[in-house]
Fold this sequence. Notes:
Blueprint: E1 5-7, E2 10-12, H1 17-28, H2 32-39, H3 43-57, E3 62-65, E4 68-71, H4 75-101, E5 105-111, H5 113-119, H6 121-130, E6 134-140, H7 143-152, E7 157-161, E8 169-182, E9 198-200, H8 206-218, E10 224-227, H9 231-240, E11 245-248, H10 249-252, E12 268-277, H11 284-294
Parallel strand pairs: 5-6, 5-7, 9-10
Antiparallel strand pairs: 1-2, 3-4, 7-12, 8-11, 8-12
Helix pairs in contact: 1-2, 1-3, 1-4, 2-3, 6-11
Amino acid sequence: MYGLRAVNDQILPNLTVQQLEYLVAAAREPTFASAARAVGVSPSALSQGLAELERRVGVRIFRPVGRGRALTEDADVVLRYAERVLAETGELARWTAQRRSGHAGPLRVGMIDVAAVDHFPAALRTFRADRPDVDLRLTVAPSAALLDQLHRGSLDLVVCVVPDDDTGLTVTRLREEPLAVYAPPGTRIGRPATWGPWVTFPPDSRTRAIVAEALRRTGARFDVVAESGQPEVLAAMVRLGVGWSVLPVAQAQRGPEPLTPLPGEALARRTLAAVQRAGHATTPAAQALLAGLTGT
């Protein structure tokens, strides 16, 4: 249980980890019944726990919607706090369990596809060979999804495109990689103003933002006709003539049907980094993997 805490002469009443767990479950699950099942209590116990949390915080967290309930705008701050506390509590529990048992236990790592397949497979193989005591659990997903899981405490370390906002994060830059322009086969290449239309990453993609800014500097229009979070799909769209794309060279130019970039230098570069939550209980296994990724 978290004790009383004075903040600017205000007292925050005791909150329990269980109440915070109820809130996170209620936010993630589609119904209160499924949220109750997720935390192993009855719906009435969940409802009572959330009502007590609301009373102690002094802010309305839920509002009625039809026969159910939805989070209010004010609930977002409380929810992010709850996710952070649960993530750090889980980390501490895993760390103490490992210290007591002497076993490394699981290490949950997230990587974007190019990091896992092209840039760091050797580091992963070496880590597995050197640390057979570690249960390495690898998740491959886009940067935004990985960072969300990191903030929620579902991952211990993430390798992704450097985030715009590194608040609460420890960022270790690993490498830069070039992004080149690719046109459909047989396309007549003119001035940048004639390039496109484009097939590219989803709107929440950090790489898309880098591409859009680089194209803007060249004077090219960024008319998007198709989107995908998978570079291989975007490359296939280019081959089919759906549109142009800007892709990581390592992915666009490998395999049996490599794309040919426009002549000249790469359009832009993006930085890949290892990201962890700042101030969390880092395990020796995570430190060893990070050392392998950085080559130290």
